[in-house]
Amino acid sequence: METTQTAPRKTLYSAIQPSGSITLGNYIGALRNFVLLAEDYDCLFCMADLHALTVRQEPAALRRNTQSLAALYIACGIDPEKSIVYCQSHVPEHAELAWILNCFTYMGELSRMTQFKDKSAKHADNINAGLFAYPSLMAADILLYQTNLVPVGADQKQHLELARDIANRLNGLYPGLFTVPEPYISKTSARIMSLSDPTRKMSKSDAEDSYIAVLDTPDVIRRKFRRAVTDSETEIRYDPENKPGVSNLLSIIAALDGITPEEEAVKMQGLQYGALKEAASESVIAVLAPIQERYQQLMGDKEYIQNTLKAGAERAHYLALKTLRKVYKKLGLYQL
Ligand code: TRP
């Protein structure tokens, strides 16, 4: 007899903090790939609002940014019927598991996290315990869903490594407790750099002119690209070491065209830098236009956003509770 057995699908987890703008770097490096990942994996896409609280937030802005990020996830093509799209604070198990994991995470490990060191330097007046324990909350996010894969950029690699260490540590004490997550390295992971300092990653925490936001208007996009730093030569060549600005523009256009930056350089050869910048602007505007249109529609339908997040939270809660119960039981917390 023939059996059509399909292996259970792997779980993939990703989260973005709802603090400020989502950049073109986030879109190219993460968001746009999520749609494809959802075909192969059971995906959870989270708005990490509890993580956002580790730096001061204006309440109204945090609330707006959370709704906005939900709309943006969906506008970028994520199907909330298929994937679980939800908000971290709607699922109480995140904070509960984070506490447990804190009891199995060492001060020394947390002190070594480069993001903690960077953020402590940047927010010297607010080095709070949440900022310090940020990675154990992130480990809780991941481990709650018995996650197999986490797409990570370079800046989150160390945090994922720690999540793996924590999972292995607990599994050593309580066998079979957690799935140990692996990094998911995207095949098409273009690293998009700052427009004003192309040796650094594009980041929403830098000056506004240094990044393109996914919701920037065409005029703003053109202006930002016009001001992008290049170099004093005239040749268009992909050479990130010596020509980081020009190479970044090539990487952006190439990522959106689906070719390599080297191939893009051949296509653009002979153009002036001004024309290269224009080509970058027009590619970006064309890709973002339909996303922005869908985003505006969604933001006009708050009820849809609310209902979607409610359904997402319920699905996430069901899975999270299963893991948390198992953890409480194995650790010896008295169950009624
Ligand atoms: N710390 C991540 C960032 O700032 C966001 C995040 C929170 C996350 N929890 C996560 C990413 C779990 C992956 C998995 O980018």
Report what the structure shows:
It contains 13 helices and five strands. The chain is mostly helical and 336 residues long. The chain has two domains: 11-184 and 302-331, HUPs (Rossmann fold, 3-Layer(aba) Sandwich); 208-297, Tyrosyl-Transfer RNA Synthetase (Orthogonal Bundle), CATH 1.10.240.10. A three-stranded parallel beta sheet has the order 1-2-3. A two-stranded parallel ribbon has the order 4-5. The protein is globular. The chain binds tryptophan. Residues 13-15, 17, 48, 51, 138, 141-142, 150, 156 line the site of tryptophan.
- The helix-strand sequence is EHEHHEHHHHEHEHHHHH
* Mean pLDDT across residues: 95
Q: Any ligands, ions or cofactors bound here, and which?
A: tryptophan
Helix percentage range: 40-55%
The CATH homology group name of the largest domain: HUPs
The largest pleated sheet is described as: 3 strands, parallel
Question: How are the elements arranged and paired?
Answer:
Layout: E1 11-16, H1 24-40, E2 42-47, H2 49-52, H3 59-75, E3 84-87, H4 93-102, H5 107-111, H6 114-122, H7 129-144, E4 149-151, H8 157-173, E5 182-184, H9 218-226, H10 244-257, H11 261-268, H12 273-299, H13 302-331
Parallel strand pairs: 1-2, 2-3, 4-5
Helix pairs in contact: 3-12, 4-7, 4-13, 7-8, 9-12, 10-11, 10-12
